[in-house]
């Protein structure tokens, strides 16, 4: 679904750039490229990060192939406007097969992509609007995105496949359709003890990830974590041990007294140390 959307956006971009270049309307040809790059980086690539390192090999390869293709075709579209940047990008993503990849992006044929999926583009625009409104509601209520919520209420049905984008982006458990909402979005802001604990676990994971960054660890480095905490803190970590270990790349969690980094999550205090 993400792949279909970004490929449709790419086809739409190629049509727009080509049409305006043929009219010698250079500004109208160049501006849509900036919008597309923003869509690519802040939505497609960000939403595909877990796919790139996921266990589903077929989906991972699909994401990698799509990304390489999009970047290669984007380089061709950028070439008349930013020749050196386009060349640098092309050299990094061009096919290794010399029969399919040219020596330079400026020797390539102009992209000819047609028939973008207008429905996919329209649906994703609606999804992103719902997400934007939901994030605004969170900010207005002063609730961090790491704090899970029970549900989000929207005015229109979110198609299967796209609904996961909304629940992940807004960190909610489910979507409830209320036709009387129209274009508005409402969040269930009631935080149960279970939801609070899950939010605390996410805050703890963020703190551990920050420690990994301070140690200049690679994302693939598997480490151990030493933790000093009271009974409530230990209970939280034990309850979410599996997700904490998987997300923070931990091979073990040891509960021992340590003089490590101090972490505070709501009313819980920890001392943690990351060890290779």
Layout of secondary structure:
Layout: H1 2-22, H2 26-52, H3 57-78, H4 83-93, H5 118-141, E1 149-154, H6 163-170, E2 172-177, E3 185-187, H7 193-214, E4 223-229, H8 231-239, H9 241-247, E5 250-255, E6 261-265, E7 268-275
Parallel strand pairs: 1-2, 4-5
Antiparallel strand pairs: 1-3, 4-7, 6-7
Would you write up a description of this structure?
The protein has helices spanning about 1-20, 25-50, 55-80, 85-95, 120-140, 165-170, 195-215, 230-240, 240-245; strands at about 150-155, 170-175, 185, 225-230, 250-255, 260-265, 270-275. With about 280 residues, it is α/β, with parallel strands linked by helices. It has nine helices and seven strands, in the order H-H-H-H-H-E-H-E-E-H-E-H-H-E-E-E. The mean pLDDT is about 95. The two termini are about 40 Å apart. The strands form two sheets. The chain has a four-stranded mixed sheet. Helix 6 links the parallel strand 1 (about 150-155) and strand 2 (about 170-175). It folds into three domains: about 1-115, Isoleucyl-tRNA Synthetase, Domain 1; about 120-185, no CATH class; about 195-275, 2-Layer Sandwich (hypothetical protein PF0899 fold), CATH 3.30.2320. The longest helix is centred in the N-terminal third of the chain and has 27 residues, at about 25-50.
């Amino acid at each position: 679904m993400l792949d279909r959307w970004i490929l449709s956006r790419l086809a739409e971009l190629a049509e727009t750039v080509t049409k305006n270049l043929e009219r010698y309307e250079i500004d109208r040809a160049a501006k849509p490229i900036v919008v597309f790059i923003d869509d690519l980086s802040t939505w497609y690539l960000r939403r595909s990060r877990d796919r790139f390192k996921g266990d589903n090999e077929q989906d991972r390869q699909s994401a990698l192939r799509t990304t390489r293709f999009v970047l290669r075709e984007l380089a061709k579209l950028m070439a008349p406007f930013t020749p050196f940047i386009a060349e640098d990008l092309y050299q990094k993503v061009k096919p290794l097969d010399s029969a399919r990849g040219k020596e330079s992006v400026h020797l390539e044929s102009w992209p000819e992509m047609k028939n973008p999926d207008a429905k996919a583009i329209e649906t994703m625009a609606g999804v992103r609007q719902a997400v934007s409104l939901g994030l605004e509601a969170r900010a207005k209520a002063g609730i961090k995105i790491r704090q899970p919520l029970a549900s989000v209420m929207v005015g229109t049905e979110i198609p299967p496949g796209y609904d996961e984008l909304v629940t992940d982006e807004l960190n909610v458990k489910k979507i409830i359709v209320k036709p009387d909402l129209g274009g508005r979005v409402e969040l269930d802001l009631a935080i149960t003890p279970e939801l609070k604990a899950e939010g605390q676990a996410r805050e703890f994971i963020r703190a551990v990830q920050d420690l990994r960054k301070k140690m200049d660890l690679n994302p693939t480095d598997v480490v151990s974590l030493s933790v000093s905490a009271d009974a409530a803190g230990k209970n939280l970590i034990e309850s979410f041990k599996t997700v904490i270990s998987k997300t923070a790349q931990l091979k073990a969690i040891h509960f021992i007294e340590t003089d490590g980094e101090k972490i505070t999550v709501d009313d819980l205090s920890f001392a943690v140390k990351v060890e290779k």
